[in-house]
Specification:
The chain contains twelve helices and eight strands. An eight-stranded parallel β-barrel has the order 1-2-3-4-5-6-7-8, surrounded by five helices. It starts with a strand and ends with a helix. Bound molecules: 2-phosphoglycolic acid.
């Protein structure tokens, strides 16, 4: 059974005080959740203090990106090696990194390797732009992004990978994909991994949906066969909203456990 994963990407939001307050509120309601994995992905400077703050709870931490290098003369970069003692996950290839910071598929692939090399788990974001969708290139785009990043991975590395399908036009717009479309793309992603790595790996792979997820629409995504969780942006900055999303993830785990 694939354990549901709910990750909250705080992006470049929160002051230090707000970060502690948000983490405390989430911890109070979801700090002992077992059946779903809960991952907070704060800005870099809050990772270390939050790891202390959340000590003893089941909540995990992630980083929003990392350098492709482990150490050296790379002013301003933060490596996977540096965050490894405090995090379990690193997001790579988020569309904001690709679009605003010029990260190509090749750069994303190098970062993914840095994450794996340092014993962490990548959450690889893939998804089409509005223009790609309109021109019927959704499958081609997503498969290209996955091929460049994942084609040469070892099976053991793929076992640590999480994919987040995030259509670019759905991020931060309040217009999520329809569940039917999200399931279709997730099924293409799983089919790609089945073809390349076989059924055991593809059946174990967790695929998240991201893009305008809220407490009210997440239930529809988590009812889908191929969607194992959510990557949440805006709604992860509100503790009540985020905890409701986590509870929907727990609900999915219960349904799967009873075979529903
Ligand atoms: P959103 O962001 O939930 O605010 O649309 C999702 C993301 O960027 O991962």
């Amino acid at each position: 059974m694939r354990r549901p994963l709910i990750a909250g990407n705080w992006k470049m939001h929160t002051t230090y005080e707000q970060a502690l307050e948000l983490a405390s509120a989430i911890q109070a309601r979801c700090g002992m959740v077992k059946y779903a994995e809960v991952v907070l992905v704060p800005p870099f400077p809050w990772i270390v203090p939050l790891s202390r703050h959340l000590d003893g709870s089941s909540i995990l931490l992630g980083a929003q990106t990392c350098s492709a290098f482990d150490e050296g003369a790379y002013t301003g970069e933060v490596s996977a090696k540096m965050v490894a003692p405090f995090c379990r996950y690193v997001i790579v290839g988020h569309s904001e990194r690709r679009r605003l910071f010029g990260e190509t598929d090749a750069v994303v692939a190098a970062k993914l390797r840095a994450v794996l090399r340092n014993g962490l788990r990548p959450i690889l974001c893939v998804g089409e732009t509005f223009e790609e969708r309109e021109s019927g290139a959704t499958r081609e785009t997503v498969e290209r992004q996955i091929t460049v990043a994942c084609n040469d991975l070892e099976r053991e590395q793929v076992a640590r990978l999480v994919i987040a399908y995030e259509p670019v036009w759905a991020i931060g717009t309040g217009r999520p994909a329809t569940p039917v479309d999200a399931e279709l793309v997730a099924s293409w992603i799983r089919a790609w991994f089945r073809e390349r790595f076989g059924p055991e790996i593809s059946e174990g792979l967790r695929i998240l949906y991201g893009g305008s997820v809220t407490a009210s629409n997440v239930v529809d995504f988590l009812a889908l066969a191929d969607i194992d969780g959510a990557l949440v942006g805006g709604a992860s900055l509100d503790a009540r909203e985020f905890c409701s999303i986590v509870e929907a993830g727990v609900g999915r785990a219960h349904r799967l456990a009873v075979g529903g």
